[in-house]
Amino acid sequence: MSNDREQFASRIGFILAAAGSAVGLGNIWRFPYITGRYGGAAFVLFYLIVVAVIGMSLMLAEFAIGRSARQDAVGSMRKLGGGAWTFVGWMGAFSAFVILSYYAVIAGWALAYTIKSFTGLMTLVTTGDASGAVFSAFVSNVPQVLLYQAIVMAFCSYVVYMGISGGIERCCKVMLPSLFILLLLLIVRSVTLPGSGAGLSFYISPKLENLTREGMLAAIGQAFFSLSLAMGIMTVYGSYIPKGEYLPASVRWVVLIDTSIAILAGFVIFPAAFAFGIEPGTGVGLTFITLPVAFSQMPLGSLFCAAFFLLLFIAAFTSAISLLEVNVAYGIDQLGLTRKKSTMIMGALIFLLGIPSALSVGGHIPQIAGKDFLDVADYITNNIAMPLCGILITLFVGWFWTDGAKAEITDNGSLAFPLYKLWLWICRVIAPVAMAIIFIYGLKW
C-alpha cells in the first residue's frame, strides 16, 4: 500500500463521483425504453427491489475490496485473493477498457446533437423518416464522428489527468448538480405538454400482467449494469475512500442518486412520448431519431432538444471518466507509470479501439455474424465479462474473504453493520444465482 495514494477530498465529492460513474446512458437512454417495453410502473417496482437486494450488495463488496487493498482492480484481487483471483480484476479492467471505447462514440453523438440543436437540426427532423435520414447521414460521416469521439476522449483524459480530487471529484461536483437541473427543466416541459397525462398514467400505474419473465430478467440486468458494477470502477473508487467512511451509508447514497435519475428520466420520456404519439418501447432509436421529431414540434424546441442531449452527454461523460480511471489506475499501480503518462497511453489506446465502433454504425466496417462492431463490443462486455466478474466477486466476498470484508466494512468492529449476515448470504447465494441467470440468458447472440 502506498502511503501517498490519492484520496477523495470530501465525502460528498466521493458520493457524487461514484454516483456519476453509475449515472450513465443506462439511466437516460435504456431505462425509459425497457420500462416502456415491460409495463411501466410494475417494471419499476421490481427493478427497485433488485437494486436494493443485488445491486447494493455487489457495490458494497467492491468498495470493501478496493479500500482494503488500496490498489487498482487487478492489484486488489491479487493482494486479497492471490494469483487465482487476479483474473477477476482483469475481467473488470478489460470491460472498462472496451466499454469506454464505444461509450466515447455514443457520448460524441450526444455532444454533436447538443450543438446541432442550435444550428438548424429542428428544421431537418420534422418527420420520423427525415430524422432517421439525418442520423444516418451523421453516423456515416467519418471525419465528423471521429472528431466528436476524439473531443470526448481528450476532455475525459484531461479530467482524469488532473487526479482524483482535482479532476474527477471537482468535475462531478459540477456535472451532477447540472444534470439534475437539466432533468428538472425537461420534466416541467414534458409534463405540461397537451396529452402528457396518458404518459404519466402509464408510468406510475402498475400493470403486473405486463411484467413477464423476460421483463424480470431485463430488470435484473438493468440494475446490474446501471450501477457500474463488475467493471472495476467501484473497486478503484473504493481504493480512494478514506478510512472511517461508513461504506453501507455511502452505497445507499450512490444507489439513491443513480436510481432517482433513472426514474426521473421516465418523467421526461413518457409524457413527451404519449403527447406526440410515440411508442415508448421502441428502443435506441427513440433517443436519436424519434425524440428530436417531438422536440421539433414544441415551442422553443431547439432549447429543449439541446438540454436533453446535454443531459445525455453529461450522464455519459461522468461514466466515461470513471471507466478511464480504472485503466489509468492499473498503469499507475501495476506498471509504475506516472498519472500523466498512464492517462496519455490508456486514453490513446482506448480511442484507437473505439474507431471500429465509430465506423461500424455508419456501415464502413462489415458486420460480424450479423452485428456491428459496436454491438459485438457491447455483447462481449455486458453479456459475458461483466456477469462473470460480478458472480466471482460476490462468491469471493461471500465464501473466501468473509472475515476481511466484515473487518473492512465495520472498521474492525468499531462500526455496526446490522445487516451483515443478510448481506453475506446475498453475496453467497442470491446475487450469484441472479447474475448466473442473466449470464446464461444473455449468451443468446
What does this structure look like?
With 445 residues, this protein is mainly α. It has a single domain, classed as Hydantoin permease. It contains 18 helices and no strands. The mean pLDDT is 93.
Provide a concise account of the structure shown.
This protein has 445 residues and is mainly α. It is built from 18 helices and no strands. 77% of the residues lie in helices and 0% in strands.
Looking at this protein, list some descriptive labels.
445 residues; mainly alpha; Hydantoin permease; 0% strand
Query: Count of DSSP E strands?
Result: 0
Oligomer: single chain
* Backbone shape: globular
CATH superfamily: Hydantoin permease
Please state the second-level CATH architecture: Orthogonal Bundle
Report the β-strand fraction as a percent range: under 5%
User: Are there runs of 5+ residues with pLDDT below 50, and where?
Assistant: none
By CATH, the topology is Hydantoin permease
Count of separate DSSP helical elements: 18
Ordered list of secondary-structure elements with their pairings:
Elements: H1 11-22, H2 25-37, H3 41-69, H4 73-81, H5 86-116, H6 128-139, H7 142-161, H8 164-191, H9 196-204, H10 213-226, H11 233-238, H12 247-275, H13 285-296, H14 301-335, H15 339-361, H16 373-400, H17 402-410, H18 420-442
Helix pairs in contact: 1-8, 1-12, 1-14, 2-10, 2-12, 2-14, 3-4, 3-10, 3-12, 3-16, 3-17, 3-18, 4-5, 5-7, 5-14, 5-15, 5-16, 6-13, 7-8, 7-14, 7-15, 8-12, 8-14, 9-12, 10-18, 13-14, 14-15, 15-16, 16-17, 16-18
